[in-house]
Specification:
Elements: H1 10-22, H2 27-57, H3 62-66
Helix pairs in contact: 1-2
């Protein structure tokens, strides 16, 4: 691991320290976990944006999705 220096607001540090204490972990471990989660969320957002862009540039046609209409189950009717 590598040590890094960051500048954070005092209120944020207090909140991180409080959360880390509640989770019985360290500030560093909590921050690592939060950064990993933020990176996962960024990747998901990028994939969703790519997916939306693809459908905008080439929307599904009725022929592509129409065959599934009869397969839909809407519960008790």
């Amino acid at each position: 691991m590598k040590t890094v220096q960051m500048t954070l607001e005092e209120a944020l540090i207090r909140s991180v320290d409080q959360a880390a204490k509640q989770l019985h972990t360290t500030r560093s471990a909590f921050t690592r976990s939060a950064l990993k989660e933020a990176l996962r969320n960024l990747k998901i957002k990028q994939l969703e944006d790519r997916h939306q862009k693809g459908y905008r540039s080439r929307p599904a046609t009725r022929e592509e999705v129409g065959v599934w209409e009869e397969e839909q189950a809407w519960g008790d009717a």
